[in-house]
Amino acid sequence: MTQKVPLWTKDFILICLANLLIFTSFYFLLPTLPVFVTDVLRGDESNVGYIIGVLSLTAVMVRPLSGYMLDAVGRKKVLFAALAAFCLAMGAYTFVTSLTLLFLLRFLHGLSWGFTTTGAGTVASDIVPPARRGEGMGYYGLSNTWPWPWDQPGIDYFT
């Protein structure tokens, strides 16, 4: 009788949990940021578009560099640095007082988003046993989308 290689190790659970929390915080910003831009910072619809778009554009542009650094510097070092930068960026939203500051923060947040999501996926693929890679990456992928339906009730509760 062949023994199945364990998938749900401590490291795999931690990377899935970290990814779940990253995406939860990201999804919390999607519906609330446009309201913040228009109601608090008195921006218009084009400002909302720029503010939302700069994060994605920055993340896409930085991902090739993040992949190189994950290989050259080390996966865990780069991921931990990116996670720290991501957490700092999330906390910095409370100090934003202008559209210019928010745009700059979204740029910096995009850098950390690109490094964090690339790093977490890379580390997850390293952790998953080769014999169970498809299954493991499927479960890991759920940690990207699982927060989406739960964020709206959470937003409603806190606002």
Automatic annotation (TrEMBL):
Coiled-coil positions: none
Subcellular localization, as worded in the UniProt entry: Cell membrane
Matches recorded under PANTHER family: PERMEASE, QUINOLENE RESISTANCE PROTEIN NORA
Entry-linked InterPro entries: MFS, MFS_dom, MFS_Exporter, MFS_trans_sf, Sugar_transporter_CS
One Gene Ontology MF term: transmembrane transporter activity
GO CC terms in record: plasma membrane
Keyword check for Protease: no
Domain Major facilitator superfamily (MFS) profile: 11-159
Keywords, ordered alphabetically: Membrane, Transmembrane, Transmembrane helix, Transport
Pfam families in the cross-refs: MFS_1
Location, primary (coarse class): membrane
Protein's recorded name: Major facilitator superfamily (MFS) profile domain-containing protein
